[in-house]
Automatic annotation (TrEMBL), chains A, B:
Residues reported in the UniProt entry to bind ATP: 6-10, 46-47, 170, 206, 210
Protein name per the record: Isopentenyl phosphate kinase
Major enzyme class: transferase
Lineage of origin: Archaea, Methanobacteriati, Methanobacteriota, Stenosarchaea group, Halobacteria
Limits of the Aspartate/glutamate/uridylate kinase domain: 1-216
Length: 243, 243
């Protein structure tokens, strides 16, 4: 039983304050994960760590940079956030270890992501909980572009043949036009009218992109907030199920 | 033309002082690399950063740990050193970017190292200089063991089909029993009598192990010190040639 869980940037950071970890949320998440399922991969977003540096260097998922300093500014900020997430999980008793996507992933000239997952699989087999993060990624012909946490979730869910995928963000699920959680999405058309762009600046796309990517997975995915995390890890259907 | 260069832990750190970068040496090396060849991969050793933590947790290339905190202690120290090396190279104008081996490598139950080099190749193709380092590595059945810089050099030289391999350490080459540099080694037996163990504590083996590994490469390798680095990068034969 392999679970891929994303902790959104809006969960683990204070999105409006540069490079600020949301310690309260992070501790809540870590406590939930301490009772979590066996094979667990965690991916976290960038929140107020990654996006600021990405904007500053004009880098997005399609606009790249050949400046090594731009790469290390963005990557370094994400590693500082990853350090905080890994440390919080370890304090809660989770055998978390860091995996930095820039080291192993690359995009080809078409923008297709290649992420060999053998090292992550080997960590799971040894009882570790690999913790990946949104990052920069080398991109053929464009230097380095942004790799979103959502893309990582989709890639890992496929390559690890995940049984369950969870996206924990700051909303309790995908909302309809009255602000009510949509319990189940089977086709993008079911919710196309409700999904505008993300309000905050987010170089990696909002809910619409998430839903499209999750629909493409073999595994069922769920979108929920911190209140739903423990339930998801217990095997319950929480928030919005996308299948 | 692809070059793999190792900067030994004895070059970039003060081996006798815990977690201390040798700034003078590092700046000299960075200045030499600024005029370096096109496709260049740099690997650095652990010196006073990695070995201390490895010893403390009882971890070696064969003795592993399943403690996540042990993994991050060693890995974190090596990333701090890598930050310093990458920053020094960038200051000298080298488009250096970090690659953390723990993220992408793994050992199987036989201890054989698997290191997919596609991301490193993609970085080279975009004009970056990937900078790897001795690290921990997940090891099937043993948790995580140590991955030496020398093993990385051997693996990358093979997978990147390197044309030249250089090992810059604190000795001007492989020395005979009178302290004179042996200009050329073609078989281990040529120098077996001269090569004892390394004097300092070194979890990853001394010169004997290096020579054996370098002899197994397709590419010619050279062992030299900082005085020989600029010459090596210019294409000259410096120190000891192992071929």
């Amino acid at each position: 039983m392999t679970t891929v869980l994303k902790l959104g940037g809006s969960v683990v950071t204070r999105k409006d304050e540069p490079e600020t970890v949301d310690e309260t949320n992070l501790e809540r998440a870590a406590a939930a994960l301490a009772d979590g399922p066996g094979d667990l991969v965690v991916v976290h977003g960038g929140g107020s760590f990654g996006h600021h540096h990405a904007s500053e260097h004009g880098v997005s998922t399609t606009e790249g940079t050949h400046e090594a300093v731009g790469v290390t500014d963005i990557h370094g900020a994400m590693k500082r956030l990853n350090d905080a997430v890994v440390a919080a999980l370890q304090r809660a008793g989770v055998p978390a270890v860091p995996v930095h996507p820039f080291s192993l992933a690359w995009r080809d000239a078409d923008g297709t992501l290649h992420l060999p997952a053998d090292s992550v699989r080997a960590m799971l087999d040894e009882g570790f909980v690999p913790v990946l993060h949104g990052d920069v990624v080398v991109h053929a012909g464009r230097g380095a572009t942004i790799l979103s946490g959502d893309e990582l979730v989709v890639s890992l869910a496929g390559s690890l043949d995940a049984d369950r995928v969870g996206l924990c963000s700051d909303v309790p699920g995908v909302l309809d036009d009255e602000g009510t959680v949509v319990p189940r999405i089977e086709r993008f058309e079911d919710v196309a009218d409700y999904l505008g762009g993300s309000e905050a600046t987010d170089v990696t796309g909002g809910m619409a992109a998430k839903v499209r990517e999750l629909l493409a997975l073999d595994a069922p995915a769920q979108v929920f907030d911190l209140d739903g995390l423990a339930g998801f890890l217990d095997g319950a259907d929480t928030g919005t199920v996308i299948d």
